[in-house]
Protein: TFIIS-type domain-containing protein
Amino acid sequence: MALLFCPTCGNMLELEEGGRQSEFFMSQKTKKIEPVLGGEAEWRSAPRTEHTRCSECGHNVAFYQQVQNRSADEPATTYFRCTRCAKVWQEA
Structure:
């Protein structure tokens, strides 16, 4: 049986069988989502670079953080956050 997920919130749906009908429901077990890149304070203390350009406002100064999203033998992903408009993007 395949796992099904809510298209709106992404929570896993559980199957409840009852008599002649079966229906899916979302259990009340939810967990708090932690920000992967930290909160506002962590971005403010992140290093800055002038070697990028924001596609939203054109500003060339951004904070950046590197995160090891994939396996250890793959390079880290660099995320940028514009110091002017706060748009977040990752290195292409």
